[in-house]
Amino acid sequence: MTLRSTLRVALRAVALISLLVPASAPWPAGGRPAAAAEAAAPADVRRKLDQARDLLDEGKPGKAGSLVAAAATDLAALAELDRVPSGVRPLLDLCAQLKDDLDLEGVDVSAIAIPQLKARPASRTASPPQPAAAPAAGISFTRQVGPLLVTHCGGCHVTGRRGDFQMASYDALMRAGVVQRGAGAASRIVEVIETGDMPRGGGRVPPQDLALLVAWINAGAAFDGPDPIAPLGAAAGASGAAAGEAIKPVRLAPGEVSFAFDIAPVLLKNCSGCHDADQPEARFSMTTFARFARGGMSGAPFTAGRGADSLLVRKIKGASGIEGQRMPIGKPPLAPEVIALVEKWIDQGARLDLLGPNAGLADLAAAGRARSLSHEDLRTARFAAARQLWKRAIPDEEAAAATLDDVIVIGNLPQSRLDETAGTIEKAVAGVRKQLLGGDGPLVKGGVACYLFVKAYDYSNFRQAVTGEERPKGLAGHAGVAGDVAYGAVLVPAATAEDADDDLAALAAEQIASAAFGARGAPAWFAAGAGRAVAARVAPKAPAVKAWRQESAAAVARLATPEDFFGGQAGPVAQAAIAGGFVSGLAPAPAKLQAMIERLDGGASFDAAFADVFKGPSAPLFATWCAKESRRPARR
Q1: Topology of 373-631 in CATH?
Q2: Rounded Cα–Cα distance for residues 72 and 66 (Å)
Q3: What is the pLDDT of residue 243?
Q4: What angle in degrees, to the nearest 10, is found between the helix axes of 500-518 and 590-601?
């Protein structure tokens, strides 16, 4: 079977899934309405679309096109009805998919118009839901019922609109007609849970959760929050499917399970491939902590404090009563001690402990290793990862390498020339260490990689592969963090250039110092500025350093707003030039940057460290500096 045929079969299966909507006949009581006398029944439209799909599979797109056009006409008539029959929306989606497939087959589909459903009017009989002064019968919607719904229904019907049904807020839930105040057993939402029809994709609603839902409805289904139209995830207090912005990293107590060090590596090893960014299975992406916590079609993967009941734990255990297969599919079951660790993490609150909710899982795992491993063990991991990063970015260029204590130099130079170059870099590293650490200790725990490129296009390819960004004209180096690798990348000055060694020392010092701050969580503008400030003191006679001073003034004159600088809109070349002048002005001597390193290593946030060391936040200090720069005479 071809890939196209496989996709078509899958789409047909999706379209056949029954929907979570209040039970109703295809037509209102009393038979088919007069207004629908000329409209086909949904079942007839389904038959036409299925026949069109079969004809497409048989290689007869022309005949299939006639059926799709007829089905689109039927759907247009159905869409005009005052009460659109249930099941029309998936037929619209299927018709649109078939139109796209016909277009790919070269069929003229310009005459096929897919109709749009009219917005549903608000119920004329149901009164608007009113907040209650206190939780009904002691049951809180925001603290108990809301989290329950987010956990078990979130991916399909809270953040999603599967089956044209969404309960994105308390107001939306009550207007949908699936809750009958005072009649829990008769409510449609309870019925589909009791029969096992929902939730789909794995797991069951535990009896205690169902009993809580029924009791809340029986007591009047009251709302106890400030705003009944607020998003359900927010009203629910982020039970595990919270929005990324609401998740803050926390400091763990000794002995607590770390998501970054303990859990993220398990997810990366066992779940990547199925739950990545591109078309994740069950719409469940694990690319970031925020996406992982949000869950997918089956709802949130965990409820903080309830490890054994959480869907994630039940799936990896292969617990009885779950729908679908044990996870991970096609791989050996997770070891009992690993499952116990995941369950313990959820029981302890399912908290994020490093970086932020939108950081990639690979970066979180790397940050966990950086915090937990010794310098020597992390150095081994970082240097191995640095070699692999080169192979991934420049697979056709074999690299030479040299190790300088806590710096590994990797480049596409002949080994003999790289060894000579490494001597220049070693002196630059010693200068950076003196500027930032007073001369002792590793620049970065686990070490730094210094990548050297002889050819500009190799450097461009590396930057594109690692950062996803094109190299702008004039950029001769940059620094960053990629997984386990803290690195500086340098385009080597031509050996024939005057003062080439001085320029290489300046460029290497700039990027290695920048990597030292970037690895400690400093923003890109400060890392770049500190790199230039340090390099200017390490190699003050380098032609590159003299050029930087002129570039800074010119870049400030072209800067539109300070927000463009802090947001990176000025571009990497201009941002480095401006930041170099700004940080050099803030820290004319090594003591200030050394103080920043000490505070960041002590666990302070960048903003707190900056305000402490420089006696104020960055934005007003930058505005003051820019004003002074504008009054300076032009440098020659």
Answers
A1: Neutral Protease; domain 2 (1.10.390)
A2: 10
A3: 38
A4: 40
